[in-house]
Structure formats: structure tokens, C-alpha cells
Amino acid sequence: MALVSIVQNILKIEELKRRIGFTMLMLVVYRIGAHIPTPGIDGEAVSKFLLNQGGALMGFFDMFSGGALSRVTIFALGIMPYISASIIIQLLTVVFPALAKLAKEGESGRKKITQYTRYGTIVIAIIQSIGIAVGLEGMRGLDGEAFVQNGGWPFRLLTMITLTSGTAFIMWLGEQITERGIGNGISLVIFAGIISGFPGAVINSVRLIRDDQLPILLMLVILVVMIAVVAFIIYVERGQRRIPVQYAKRVVGRKVYGGQSTHLPLKVNTAGVIPPIFASSIIMFPATVAGFIAIPWVQSIAQQLSPGNTLYTVIYVSLIVFFTFFYTAIVFNPVDIADNLKKYGGFIPGVRPGKFTSDYIYKVLSRITFGGALYLACVCVLPEILISQFNVPFYFGGTSLLIVVGVALDTVSQVESHMITRSYDGFMKKKRIRGRRG
Which end of the chain is more exposed for a tag (fewer CB within 10 A), N or C? Predict the structure, then answer.
């Protein structure tokens, strides 16, 4: 009954209903595009070969594209070129003062940064699509039949234009969802790609159990582990370190302002799902191209970058830790927070205003960010190491669970905010659901 009441409240809010409907429509368009084949390629033969030979590596990459990569459809590159371009632009923002200044210019600067990111996305998509086209020309299926009948530069240019256009369209879809829908569009695109593989993974698991290749007791243990991981993710994502803040009383005319006590909430995982997505994108860039090049030593490197291998694990964990600190430093500036507190008469009890306050906030933030980085690394890597040993579908890995749960929390939090601002009950009457930014 509570769920029915929530749905009825959502339907009463015209703007919210329109935003949810628009988001669902855009995600449906995305899923349709993930099944449109790229011209000149035998997609079915490629899919059988890659899923047969690619193993965990192809399963990992295919998870982010919603199956489009293994079928080499027009959305084969997915949204990852955009993520890679975002990483590069953010790194350059730290290195080049001109970009850093541009990023601080408000809305106009943000639009310019977004424009540079789009250009970078196209460049990366062109490089990756040409690499895939060249790789497919030299590959043959399990029966010896070539995947590409008419190769050469006409085929390469056609594939480049098709896959790059597909990525550009996905980027546009994500931006439209963010602007006119509900939730973060890019995250929801990745979310839709991951959950699209859940039904197939469940069916595959049932088939393995039926064929006695997967003990049912082991599957039950894995389900319990999944539930525990989801509960742990929700618990940590909602976790905060609250720094007490006291505001001094100010007399303006005949009125007295301030004097109240509040707190500065610091999220345990300020970076959210960005670090594992960024880390996956960095690993995916060379490994995707290498997977399509039929050279033994290149294939060996691609295999070492597949989930479960030591090299992959070390690089993946290192990148997660790096991007956790990097992204947190971008979105949360202790110096700006300290200046704002001082400007409005706020102070942390026992800490002097100004530089001492910023140093204190930085010290606390560094400690909880380190804990958040370890949490992300454990959730993303440990379940996948265990699961890779028992031939369980890769969709049940920690990275996919983290992204799905994190994006779901953010989206539900935004829906609830729309409901509460219009005097409707949220999903929980006594408490609000906090997303990663809540």
C-alpha cells in the first residue's frame, strides 16, 4: 500500500511525472540503439567469438556498454570515451592555470569546459573506432570465416563514423537526461547498460546450476554475499563525519543574527562511483584496442588486464585510490569552506578561523577519504576475485553492484526531493533517503 501511495504522489506532480517519463524514454532509445548493427560486420559471429575467447575481460567491458561491444553495434564504444575525456580535462585543469581559471568562471566557464570535453570525446572515439575496425579486419571466427568481407579504408572510415556518431549520440542523451529528466544522465546510461545484463546473468546461472556446473549451495552463498555487499554499500554511502560549527551572534540594527549551532557534513565517500568508473575507463582504453589485435604479445597484455589477474588488480586498486583523492580535491575545497565560515561568522569550536580551520578540515577529510578509497577498492575488487574463481556471471561483481546501488540512491534521492518540496511524503515517512550528494 505504501508503494501505491508513493506512485500516486509521483503522478500528482506534473513536472516530476514529465521528468521521469522523459528519462525512461531516453533510456529506451539507448537500449534500442544498442541492438542496431554496425554496417559491414557480422555482429552475431563477432559476439560468439568474443564472448567465447574474451572471458572475464570481454564480460567486464561489455557490462559498461550493455552488450553493445560484443555485438559491435553502433553504440559499441558506449559512454566510456566521454568518461576518458572528462578525466583528461580534469587532469589538465589541475596542470594548466588557464583551464583552472576557466573552471572558476561560473556557468560560462563550465560550458566551455563541457565543450572541450565533447571535442576530446570525439577524438578518443575516433582512435578507438579505427583500432576496432583494423582489429576486426584481421580476425576470423571459430569456423574460420572472416568477420569483415570487404575491408580496407572505406570500411574503416564507415566504422569510424558509425561508432563515433553512436558515442556522440549517447553523450547527447546523457546531457538531455541531466537537463530535462531526473538524475545524472551519464550515470543512468551506465546504470541502464549494467542492469540490462542482469536477466541474462540470472538465466545463465540457472543453466549452470541445472547442468551441475555450479553447486546450488555455492550460488546461495554468493547471493548472501551480494545482499551483504549491497547493504554495506548503502550503509557507507550514507555515512558522514559531522564537524560541529558554531555561528557567533551579530547585531544588525535591532535584530540579532546567528548564535546557532550546526555541522559541516563530510561524506565518507565524497567521490561516489566516479573513481571505479574512471579507473575502469583508463584500463578499458588500451585493453579494448588490444583485444582486437591478433598479435600474441598484445593479446597476452590484454589478458593480463582482465579481472582476476594480479596486474589488473594492482592497477585497478591504485587508480581507484588515486581518483578518490583527486575527485574529492576537485569537488571539496577546504580553503573555500574556511573562508566562507569566516565570512559569515562561523567557526569550529577549538579551532582558530582561517588557515587553521582549512588545515583542520583538510586533515579530517584526508582521513575519511582514505577510508572511502579502501572501501571502494574492497567492494570493487574482493567480490570479483572470489566470483572469478567459481565461473559466476560477471554482472554480479562488486563494481557493477556499487554503480547500480549508488546511481539508484542518487536518483531516488532526487525524486524524493521533488516530492518533499511540494509537501508530499517521501519514500520513508520518518527519514529522508540521502544520496551520495544528499
Answer: N
Only one residue has cell 504522489, namely 9
Which pLDDT tens digit goes with each residue over 315-359?
889 999 999 998 888 888 888 888 888 887 788 888 888 888 889
Taking the mean position of all CA atoms in its chain, how far away is CA 436?
Answer: 13
Is the separation of the CB atoms in 358 and 263 below 8 Å? no
| Site of grid cell 591478433 | 294
Cell of 221: 552463498
Domains (range + CATH), the chain? 13-195 (1.10.3370.10), 214-438 (1.10.3370.10)
Q: Which residues pair with 244 in a beta bridge?
A: 263
Residue 13, all three cell numbers: 506532480
- Percent of the residues in the chain that have a pLDDT greater than 70, as a whole number: 79
**How far is Cα 126 from Cα 77, in angstroms, rounded to an integer?**
10
Residue written as cell 553512436? 166
pLDDT tens-place string over residues 266-307: 888 888 888 888 887 777 666 656 655 666 766 676 667 666
Extract the C-alpha cell encoding 282: 583508463
Question: Could you give the C-alpha distances from 240 to 49, 186, 198, in angstroms and in order?
Answer: 47, 25, 31
Q: Which three cell numbers stand for residue 44?
A: 552475431
The 3-state DSSP class for residue 21 equals: helix
SS3 content of the chain, % helix, strand, coil (to 5): 70, 5, 25
Q: Is the Cβ–Cβ distance between 396 and 376 less than 8 Å?
A: no
